[in-house]
Amino acid sequence: MxxxxxxxxxxxxxxxxxHPYRQPCQAILRELQAGRLAGEVSIELIxxxxxxxxxxxxxxxxxxxxRRIERSCPLHExxxxxxxxxxxxxxxxxxxxxxxxxxxxxxxxRGIDAILSADKGYxxxxxxxxxxxxxxxxxxxxx
Length: 143
Hints:
Blueprint: E1 5-6, H1 8-15, H2 22-33, E2 41-42, H3 43-53, H4 59-72, E3 75-76, H5 80-92, H6 98-109, E4 114-116, E5 129-131, H7 136-140
Parallel strand pairs: 1-4, 2-3, 4-5
Helix pairs in contact: 1-2, 1-3, 3-4, 5-6
């Protein structure tokens, strides 16, 4: 299996309301649960997911869902090298948000060359391929 980093949106879309990415993201999480995908996550993803989900559900439900992510994927802590690279990426790529720059930096600093995300802000980052969750052929390259 190919190493890749999950973006928060995969989990948000999977448990969210109807959206074009909902079904593809749910299918991806079924593959993860079945052991046919092995994505990794930043600990910052857990924070972001819980924060976003708590706007729609109770904190208890948001925490329960966040813990499921925590238990299903290897976690990466943020270190100073990640912050430094993230700030550089954030300045270089206008469409990239700071948290996404941090995810990209964590992937690059750990030798991970793919991020599973609907967010086009990751496009154009040297050494990092964005895999769109709605592109079944591209997702299959992660298996």
